[in-house]
Amino acid sequence: MEVFINGIGAISPQDSLDGLNMEALPVLVNSSEVKSIEPVYKNYINPGKARRMSRMVKMGVTAALKALQESEVAMPDAIITGTAMGCLDDTEKFLNAIIDNDEQLLTPTAFIQSTHNTLGAQIALLLACHNYNFTYVQRAFSFENALLDGLMKLSEGDAQNVLIGGHDDMTSGFYTLYDRLGYWKKEVGEDLLMSKSKGAYSGEGAAFFTLASKSSSTSYAKVLGVDMLYKPTNTDEINSWVRAFLDAKNIEPSEIDLVLYGINGDSRFYPTFEEVKEAVFAEQASGYFKHLSGEYATSTSFAMYLTANMLKKQFVPDYVLTSAIRPKSLNRVLILNGSRNENYSLTLLGKC
């Protein structure tokens, strides 16, 4: 069956909540600890309730409410979120309090708000929604599994409208820890396509989508499929997996108008995307997105936000393209994301 994206809300390093202005120059993510552009939350959330929310919860709730508002859905049949790290800010507050207070007289608030399902629960509380509510925590596959679950709920007829989202935030503690593990770049201002250094630029964001079994006047795009591959042994395995994904849908590589790669500027992993491009999509237009979002576990949600907007507007900005080839039309866009040569995912979107 067909599944439509009827509403979107996204908060990211771009000014994205009220729709992406594709003709304006973007904010390039080319430095450390880039933060999202946050809205005035009182325009979306009751200030009294927002005061008790962490930054990540406010970002996620606002994005979710925006997606529901756009799709004109008051009550979703399911709320499904994906996050690798949960609400890190509150996690760090609670752990620091344990140390500072010598494990005595701890308030439970920060712990309660740090769990991975905090955002999904908060959305349900605000909506008074007692329907299916699930949070997926599978590192770089978190959002993809949330999307897959949403597609299954719709295809099985268990739901008519499903709210799905992916979110992860960046804190100074998390940045420092992962910097020691070699995740981030030391240099500032590098072009991700030309970079010869190790590491990526960190990012964060929250993106929510209202999926439905029927299209509407607000529809952005169709979700045609999602798949994941864990720890491929070599690039040939990735190429075979990509071809098998397209074969299952009776689609030739030549029928993909644009391939959006998860290039993050890390010289250790960039060649893999180039090899897939040359082997499978040599004649197709190509682009990238992590210079707009930064690197984080659920960055596919931002890529899906970007792709849905391009399909709806039938326009690909120059700052997205990495090839001299421009798509002649925009009917199908394939997102190929990857995380440290371990987690690869494919998300296929189509024009409504």
From TrEMBL:
Keywords: Transferase. It holds the Pfam family Ketoacyl-synt_2. One of its GO terms (cellular component) is cytosol. One of its GO terms (molecular function) is 3-oxoacyl-[acyl-carrier-protein] synthase activity. Residues 41-179 form the Beta-ketoacyl synthase-like N-terminal domain. GO terms for biological process: fatty acid biosynthetic process. Transmembrane segments: none annotated. InterPro entries: Beta-ketoacyl_synthase, Ketoacyl_synth_N, Thiolase-like. This is 3-oxoacyl-ACP synthase.
